[in-house]
């Protein structure tokens, strides 16, 4: 094998046209899902302090939001709700007129083609802020499953296209699949937050969704950041239970996990570029310490290169705009 000076990798980097020709990874608005935070009331469009350029929206403001997303070519949204009241059992999560159920109907009426994915979890709805029912100070896995299944069915009944359980209870994909099938929603896919880590990067989200646990933390159900073989086991179980997509979350500090999941499984792999990852870029860019646009596109490209097919990201709108303009 000849080396330098016969071989010169720089030849293929000399012009933008050459670089475009040999580029291995491309990013498109088609890859993105944009999270939305819905609140009760009307006329509400309030910027979220911990997530600049993202808003708390009331149902009547969703039509304009999804219209803008549609024009940018973003195919889907992921809904999170802030309930009117919280209780021990997270009642509004599975209420017919819950905030997410209202939001689904509003979006489907305004933009039927916009993909509506719903986060299925109890933490925004429980007074204690944990993702399931409590037994003492522990989260009771098996009693939680029924409520998660009810939540997923109520989202499907309101018109959701995909349900995305994020609670990390064991057996929830199977429980949700069974309930959806029994209620006539066999066609609704499950996007499982399969490898979700107990991460400090969720801080800005918890401020936005008012979902921080009132005592303790989530390490008894979310994964230890030190583990990757366990992630493959979690993903394998969710696939066996009937998941249609598998998710790794967060993304940026877990690119190795995304790559390993991509190698091992053939389902679509979703990466959640979480709130803390977004907030860090925003904060540094606002200080003038990094170029926000270049940093964002580099991060999203890296997540894709690692093996993600779909990226859930708070950058979706700006990134779609930049990609349309040509970066
Ligand atoms: C709900 C949920 C969380 C996120 C998505 N769904 C928070 C958590 O697990 O505490 C985090 C999203 C983000 O940080 O952007 N369980």
Features:
327 residues; alpha/beta; TIM Barrel; ten-stranded mixed sheet; 11 helices; 39% helix; globular; binds ligand PBG
How many beta-strand segments? 12
Structural class category: alpha/beta
- Alpha carbon gap, first and last residue: 37 Å
Tally of individual domains? 1
The CATH superfamily bears the name Aldolase class I
Quickly give the CATH architecture.
Alpha-Beta Barrel
Number of helices: 11
Bound molecules: ligand PBG
Description:
This protein is an alpha/beta fold and 327 residues long. The protein has one domain: TIM Barrel. The chain is 39% helix and 18% strand. The chain contains eleven helices and twelve strands. It has helices at residues 16-22, 62-72, 99-110, 141-158, 172-182, 203-209, 229-241, 255-264, 275-286, 292-306, 316-325, and strands at residues 32-39, 45-48, 51-57, 76-82, 115-120, 134-135, 138-139, 162-165, 191-196, 245-249, 269-273, 310-313. The strands form two sheets. Strands 1, 2, 3, 4, 5, 8, 9, 10, 11 and 12 form a ten-stranded mixed sheet that branches. It has a two-stranded antiparallel sheet with strand order 6-7. Strand 4, helix 3 (99-110) and strand 5 form a beta-alpha-beta unit. Helix 2 crosses helix 3 and helix 4 (141-158) crosses helix 5. The protein is globular and about 70 Å long. Bound molecules: ligand PBG. Ligand PBG is lined by residues 119, 121, 123, 131, 166, 202, 205-206, 211, 218, 274-275.
